[in-house]
Design brief:
150 residues, Ribosomal Protein L15, Chain: K, domain 2, three-stranded parallel sheet, two-stranded parallel sheet
Length: 150
């Protein structure tokens, strides 16, 4: 058990520079002698002695908008291949939550769009945010349906 008078000091007092030789930080106050860095009001941030600084050596990368919708795109042929592999059951309604759970679309996507590339043979009900005209036509031809969320 630590008593109050021999515990480690929590609030250490600040080093007072320039207060005489004996303090260990007297005269030049630990700044060395002469030169730019010994003067006050000098800031040489990211200066690397004339070498090309790191922030200029690295390539510029784009900009990611925080408002941007992350839309997961799924083609009919991809859905059909998942049905053939028995990853997706045709009996249940296919929506983004199920696809995220099965890791078939990215978990960070907040919208689902169905596109009409390829053919679909099985009847399936889909719930999505967006769909192309061709995808809707092909699904209805097979006897499936697509529900668009607003």
């Amino acid at each position: 058990m630590i008593s109050l008078n021999n515990r480690k000091k929590i609030n250490k007092s600040k080093m007072r520079v320039g207060r005489g030789i004996a303090s260990g930080k007297g005269k030049t106050s630990g700044r060395g002698v002469k030169g730019q860095k010994s003067r006050s009001g000098v800031a040489i941030k990211s200066f690397e002695g004339g070498q090309m600084p790191l922030y200029r050596r690295l390539p510029k990368r784009g900009f990611n908008s925080i408002k941007k919708d992350r839309i997961a795109i799924l083609n009919l042929e991809k859905i059909q291949s998942y049905i053939d592999k028995k990853n997706i059951k045709t009996s249940e309604i296919l929506n983004s939550n199920i696809l995220k759970k099965l890791k078939l679309i990215n978990k960070n996507s907040n919208k689902l769009k169905i596109l009409g590339t390829g053919e679909i043979k099985n009847k399936i009900n889909i719930e999505a945010n967006l769909a192309s005209k061709s995808a809707v036509e092909k699904l209805e031809k097979v006897g499936g349906s697509i529900q668009l969320k607003k």
